[in-house]
Write a structure and sequence with these properties.
The structure is a homodimer. Chain A has eight helices and 15 strands.
């Protein structure tokens, strides 16, 4: 296994400590139980947004803690759900009197542990379950659709709404709405390698790709020979647009996400291929995001996410944000 | 070769077009000759900063075009110097009457082509040659030391100074100063794969690393067995600090850069290991940057860069910047 590591058991702690030190202007890292929270408490009460999940998808979720986005994030071990005591500790640390809104990717382990964490709290709370992956119904770790790269779009837009002083119900309903407006699908060329396993999660041929892969290397729709970028994008877009059924002249956010091992050059090439398809269908790409935001350790591959935009989503996408991984207008 | 590609000859054009479309609020992409330039012309005359080099190091340099940093970037083919007509076209497009400052990484091909481009211009001009890599004197493509991840620190700080209306000589001298204050060194676990070659640039054993590697996969100081992260960082820091000989209580910027194939988790772990060493030496890490900024396509590995800070460098590091890959205070 070729990784920068001292002791496999210490990776998460050492990495989180470095993360806290590198961004001490924005956030704080607490250990045992582990959570990341905003450095600056909100000036007035607001709904506290808490997300989390297995580590290995960085910058998701800790990279999105800060003004305009999350109040806290709970990182589990690599590809393992965080434990309920993390959610409990984070919620008690960041709540400011307007309730807690959990944002959870739809994996059975995460759902269960977030529910157990919620039960330990004596605070008003709601949960948004993100399930934007259109590839498959049910999967290795999931009942229903998986939550993938669209999660950060929910976190950004609901985070912005929460800053305005909106109520817990308003934030919950808006998050469910953004989730419904969002579809994603990905493809992997290689497996990732989980440090504790020390070897690739799955085997794949030299000329094969996993079409519709999950962000932990879960199987997708099919294993097939690698195609051209345009062919891959056409198939991904077909699946996403079939799910979203956008209107003619629909405005969308187009997000091309890298899984960690694919160069930025290729991600921009994918973006261009996807934009051309949308242009041909009279769908307007009015917002865009390209980069490694929801990763799968060192997996080569990427995903495409489309969010149908309305005035409210645009307003809360464009608004100021100041986190380790996403910053604008501040 | 597992890449998102249609035709190898079209990768750069398709990727640049996507880059331009994804960031049309910040920059414009011109093709044949290829260059990236700021969308908004400066409000008052300023020194125009132009960088460039082989593609495959994204976000360097195009990702740093925008307010507070570069006026233009000239991308060559993958790992190949841009051609002189690119520099000529970019300079004629972005100059605003206060001269042109070229920022060039020290590779023989880049130096030669930037000089030829400069000769084609009838504009006042200077060149900063960045050579921050402390690993080796002379290398496969270089006479003298290589220019690596420290280049973006020169671009950020000189870009900020240029926004203040500073003269061409002031900008040139400040850039040379920042370069001198900066040292970098990297290590690779795997080779990268150049699309036109279709196979890894170099062979490396399953348990080996290239210590002091260049950003095109050039040999470094030695090929050896992989060590722990702390041991690797200790050796890298020894080499960098020997070169920079910082004073006691020196303030520094610590930049951990990923080569493209290494997860963010590991980069933060490296940051923590490096910071600990600096802490022990009473060197204060007062500014930090962790992420994939100067990449080598899909290479697994990373580099550490240290810049000794003074008041002027801090001022121009902290100042507003608005580019595709680096944004703050705007």
């Amino acid at each position: 296994m070729k990784k920068f590591v001292n002791n496999v058991d210490d990776i998460l702690t050492e990495s989180l400590t470095g993360f806290g030190d590198a961004h001490s202007d924005i956030l704080e890292v607490k250990l045992k139980p582990d959570f990341v929270s905003r450095k600056l408490k909100p000036a007035k009460p607001k709904v506290a947004l808490i997300s989390g999940g297995g580590s290995g998808h960085e910058p998701l979720h800790g990279g999105f803690v800060g003004y305009g986005m999350l109040d806290a994030a709970c990182p589990g071990q690599v590809f393992s759900a965080p434990t309920p005591d993390q959610m409990e500790a984070a919620a008690n640390h960041v709540h400011s009197g307007k309730g807690i809104l959990f944002i959870v990717k739809n994996y059975s382990g995460d759902i269960m542990n977030f529910e157990m964490g919620a039960d330990m709290l004596n605070l008003e709370q709601q949960t948004i379950v993100v399930n934007d992956d259109v590839a498959v119904e049910d999967s290795t770790f999931t009942t229903g659709r998986r939550g993938v790269a669209g999660t950060m779009i929910v976190e950004k837009t609901v985070g912005s709404l929460a800053e305005t002083g909106a109520s817990l119900d308003e934030c919950k309903n808006f998050g469910d709405h953004v989730n419904k407006m969002t579809g994603s699908m990905g493809v992997a060329f290689t497996s990732c390698t989980v440090p504790a396993a020390g070897k690739p999660t799955f085997d794949i041929g030299r000329d094969e790709m996993e079409f519709g892969v999950g962000i932990h290397g879960e199987p997708g729709r099919k294993r097939e020979k690698i195609k051209t970028a345009n062919e891959i994008v056409a198939e991904l877009m077909d699946a996403i647009l079939e799910d979203l059924s956008p209107n003619n002249n629909q405005e969308v956010l187009l997000h091309v996400n890298g899984f960690g091992g694919t160069p930025l050059m290729e991600l921009y090439l994918l973006f261009e291929a996807a934009k051309k398809i949308l242009d041909q269908k009279n769908i307007t790409v009015s917002r865009s995001l390209v980069g490694n935001y929801t990763t799968s350790l060192d997996m080569a591959g990427g995903s495409i996410t489309v969010t149908k935009l309305d005035e409210k989503i645009i307003e809360h996408w464009d608004s100021p944000v100041h986190t380790a991984a996403l910053r604008w207008k501040m």
